[in-house]
Amino acid sequence: MAPRGRPRKKMVGSSRMDAALDAMKQFGFEEKLVQETVNELLDVYQGAWPFIEDGSYNLLIETILAKQEDKYLNTNIILISFTN
């Protein structure tokens, strides 16, 4: 049997998730938070990356910031209820 040619090498760091992580790194977001948020958005948009990648990951940034804001507000509400 004739050889099929060279096997393709998987390029490390070339996936869409890697690109999203690289883009969010400059904003200081934790890798775990970015991965979780991307996976949630992929579930919502049925695996459609263009919605996430559009506008330099604008949707991803807004979603992460909204999560952080909700977490901050919930923490403050709990603290206020304990102090009263």
UniProtKB/TrEMBL annotation:
<feature type="domain" description="WIYLD">
    <location>
        <begin position="12"/>
        <end position="69"/>
    </location>
</feature>
<dbReference type="InterPro" id="IPR043017">
    <property type="entry name" value="WIYLD_dom_sf"/>
</dbReference>
<dbReference type="InterPro" id="IPR018848">
    <property type="entry name" value="WIYLD_domain"/>
</dbReference>
<protein>
    <recommendedName>
        <fullName>WIYLD domain-containing protein</fullName>
    </recommendedName>
</protein>
<dbReference type="Pfam" id="PF10440">
    <property type="entry name" value="WIYLD"/>
</dbReference>
